Amino acid sequence: MNINLTLIIEGLAFFATAWLVMKYGWPPMMAAIEERQKKIAEGLAAAEQARLELKEADARVEVEIHQARQQAAEIVEHAHRHASQILDKAREDAQAEHNRLKAAAAAEITSATERARSELRSQIATLIVDGAGHILQREVDANAHYKLLNELVAEL
Amino acid sequence: MADIAPQESMTEYINHHLHHLQWKVGSGAFWTINIDTVIVTLVLLSLFLAVFIPVARRATSGVPGKFQALVESILMFVDDLVRETFHGSSKFIGPLSLTIFVLTFLMNFMDIIPVDLLPSTAAILGVHHLRVVPTADLNTTLGMSLGVFLLVQYFGLRHKSVGMFFKEMFTVPFQADQPVLKVLLALPNLLLRVIEETVRPISLSLRLFGNMYAGELIYILIAVLTLGMGLSHGMTYIMGPVQFLADFIWTIFHLLIITLQAFIFMMLTIVYLSMAAEQH
């Protein structure tokens, strides 16, 4: 238990060890730890950044979806309007055609009736003269009675 | 212990255990080397360096392995303590604290190895005295604390001007404004400073030495419970379980002590160095 030379040897051994640790052990270990801390800090910052960006992108997507929806609604509405316009126009066209055809047919009918009537009139006058001739068994003086007959035909 | 000769008395056994393997290198009591202390110290510090330095050099800043994580956590534990306490700049105080903590712990841990195991093994090999706990040798603890003492003085000189360093010896802790009082207080201040600086390394070394020496002694006393008893001896079967229980309890308690003492030695070193580096 006496104090002896061991004291100096032990003291030197101790500080030599500490010196070796300072020279070869501590700096690389500390550098590794600090670098990892930096990496972790950067990673966390990047994650935070990504989170913010994602949030922003989400908001943008939200806006765009809203806009797209609005546009779609507009397009649909427009299409509806257009369709009804087309329908109305078609209806009008059809009505006009209908009216036109109806009018044409009516005019045709009128003119045909007129034509038939005048034709009948002339034929009837001839027939009557012929018929009367037959009945009377003699020549009727057409010219003498023509005026009378024409009056008769006009009454038909 | 069964392998101890029956005629060996208790006193002889204890004295034998407390005797260093010594080598006289010159005349006078001082010129002696406790070979056992030195060899165990060298083995332990080689072990520490051989494990720590390769791990440190191969340390990756990526995902650490389990062992690297263990070493790192010890390193960070020490580094945090240093950063909390020491506000100057020094490349040495961190490594020094780590070395003190780990090496003192390893030296203290030699106490946990069964008290007769290594000496008995050495006896078979022809070495008749062996003490395996370097920190139970006052030379070790005093050597360390004197080193710390010198380092404290160096830190004091480096962190303040030389004039300031010497001025503080006469003006702290008692301060005065009048010149007369200043002169009067110079001597008490110097006296206190000398006492303070002397007491620190002594208390630092004696605290660790005392704990380890007492721990070793208690292990020896526990071993003495069955001293010289053979298997034919009736007392063996009574004292055996008592010895086992006592050893078990003391080992649990001592594990706490060796860790705590290593920590205290490191912490006080950091504190002394911080105090030296700070202006009063």
How would you describe the overall organization of this protein?
- With 156 residues, chain A is an all-alpha fold.
- Chain A has one domain (6-155).
- Helices cover 93% and strands 0% of the residues of chain A.
- Chain A is built from two helices and no strands.
- Chain A has helices at residues 6-136, 142-155.
- In chain A, helix 1 runs antiparallel to helix 2 (142-155).
- The model of chain A has no long low-confidence stretch (mean pLDDT 89).
- By secondary structure, chain B is mostly helical.
- Chain B has one domain (12-158, 190-277).
- Chain B has nine helices and two strands.
- Chain B has helices at residues 10-17, 35-57, 66-85, 93-109, 117-124, 138-159, 162-171, 179-224, 236-277; strands at 22-24, 32-34.
- In chain B, strands 1-2 form a two-stranded antiparallel ribbon.
- Chain B is globular, with a radius of gyration of 24 Å.
- Chain B starts with 9 loop residues before the first helix and ends with a helix.
- The chains are: A mainly alpha (156), B mainly alpha (280).
- Chain A binds chain B through residues 1-15, 17-22, 24-26, 28-33, 35-36, 39, and chain B through 18, 25, 29-34, 37-38, 41-42, 45, 48-49, 52-53, 55-57, 59-62, 64, 71-72, 75-76, 79, 91-92, 94-96, 98-100, 103, 134, 137-140, 142-144, 146-147.
